[in-house]
Amino acid sequence: MEMKIYRRPAVEDWPSIVGRQKTGAPEQVRDTVTRILSDVREAGDSKVCEYVRSLDGYDAQRYGLAVSSAEMEEAAAMVPEDLRSAIRLAADNIRKFHQAQLGHDVEAETMSGVVCRQKSVPVLNVGLYVPGGTAPLFSTVLMLAIPASMAGCRRIVLCTPAGPEGKVSPVILYCAGLCGVTEIYKVGGAVAVAAMAYGTETIRKVDKIFGPGNSYVMEAKKQVSQDCAIDMPAGPSEVMIIADKTARARYVASDFLSQLEHGKDSQAVLLSTSEKLVEDVAAEIEARMDGLSRKDIVCESVRRSLAVIFDTEDDMVEFSNFYAPEHLIIATSDYRKTSEGIVNAGSVFLGNYSTESAGDYASGTNHTLPTGGWAVSCSGVNIDSFRKKITFQEISPDGLKSLGPVIVRMALAEGLDAHANAVKVRLDDIMEG
Q: Which end of the chain is more exposed for a tag (fewer CB within 10 A), N or C?
């Protein structure tokens, strides 16, 4: 299956080339999610259990929704030591990078007698969604639970689907235990989002929901966002690669395929000034697909993928900022200089050896990132995603004497007499005192 190749397309043709629009989920997905949300909101546990049984085959009504401490211990024993060691190293790197993001509170005396302060506090109750299914994303547990814990979130809830026998992926449970998460429920998809957003008898409501998922999960997060905060809008996973003749075709093809195995709706885009590199990458992709365990998925997603040949590096950077990729790899001779022009991207990987897989697992940066072009206005998950900022102000009598007339003048100009009077009564007392 060959990827599409475009040569020096006009700017007005860029949207149609990438074929990516924020049109929302299909009507069938929207209607299904709306029904699930309504059912769970109205009936709580009974509907959650009903959906878990019909969708996953697990009798949650009989055996319960919560993962027990015994199940946690059993799962940890099932994870091979070499994998546990790898996970611990990755977790350590993630902690180090997110620790560096913890800032200090801000205080400033804006004028004599007027002190303003900003304090960062945690979101108290957060819900983490971790996909299961064909590829249980245990790395997502690390990416969400570690910063949530470091941010000081008081309650961390994790929802992930179980199989017909009620078994959650042992590696997901091991990672949860490593991160100190103990409130875990065997619920997946839009049902999990509904339970966390609205609360049930078993699963208490959270204040903000994080995590990736399929189109049903994404649509559910979108619909509940009126009642419960979410991390960001998201869609199918994607990578863009900016490469010149110095890039290595094998590396570029490997990064293409690693992204495309995420799902049939994933997309990979190559931008290059070298016609030969594009041809070599296309050949490498064809040659390497046969050995992949998820070849059927890659064969579908490669249909949505493409290469675009440009004359200059500036053209590539402009196209990249238009696309606003979730992941951006820059493999040019002076990749640091190329990166200076990037303003829209979720996470950027510099040079031939900075594979996107490193960010997915173990370098330390977070892999929960904006997709579908949302990187034009959204950041990836970070410590601040789990915190909020409160401002304080303290004004002394002398401060109000200086600032008060300014407030009064502005309030009267807006026609808000009561605002002005709130200052005047205080100024009168100060003057009399």
A: C
Identical fold for domains 27-230 and 235-379, yes or no, is: yes
DSSP string, 70-122: HHHHHHHHHS-HHHHHHHHHHHHHHHHHHHTT----EEEEEETTEEEEEEEEE
Q: Which of 98, 219, 262, 327 is catalytic?
A: 327
**Coil, helix or strand at residue 407:** helix
Place of tokens 């040949």: 309
pLDDT in tens, 324-337: 999 999 999 999 99
Measured CA to CA, the distance from residue 366 to residue 266 in angstroms comes to 19
Residue-level pLDDT at 302: 86
The Cα–Cα gap between 24 and 94 comes to: 32
Q: Do residues 271 and 316 lie in contact, with contact meaning Cβ atoms separated by under 8 Å?
A: yes
| Known catalytic residue at 326 | yes
CATH topology of domain 396-432: 1.20.5
Check whether 297 has a pLDDT greater than 70: yes
Instruction: Report the CATH superfamily, name and number, of domain 235-379.
Output: Nitrogenase molybdenum iron protein domain (3.40.50.1980)
Task: Identify the active-site residue in 219, 261, 326, 356.
Answer: 326
Task: Choose the CATH number for 27-230 among 3.40.190.10, 3.40.50.620, 3.30.1140.32, 3.40.50.1980.
Answer: 3.40.50.1980
Residue 23 has pLDDT above 60, yes or no: no
